[in-house]
Amino acid sequence: MVKVKRARTADCVVGGFRGGRDGTPVASLLLGLYNTQGLLDHVGFASGLAAVDRADLTQRVMGLRGGPGFTGAAPGGPSRWSSDERSSAWTPLRPELVVEVAYDHASGGRFRHGVRLVRLRPDKSPRQCGMEQLAQ
Q: Does residue 39 sit within a domain?
């Protein structure tokens, strides 16, 4: 038997980021998609950023601080992974940076399992990043 997974990608707006416990300024990107009401909903995160991309990505992200972040469903709140050591604090960004991510599965308007950053999408407008990408 051979298991074949379908390759899925989505273009998402980076609505915020979290720093690392080790002092890494940008450890994960908080991803969003626009819903039918035109609000940016948090749909998941991408971590495990490649070291070769981290410096450029950190510079871009830091330049977008001070924005509203997510205008619809926002990240945060208690979860089974929350602890004193693992904060749910995040920094909101202006919704200008678009990235392509690879994912295995999405349900309930969120990514499930791991999400991997594929590339930056400077050719794509943030408003082109809608929830319809997650439709089954």
A: yes
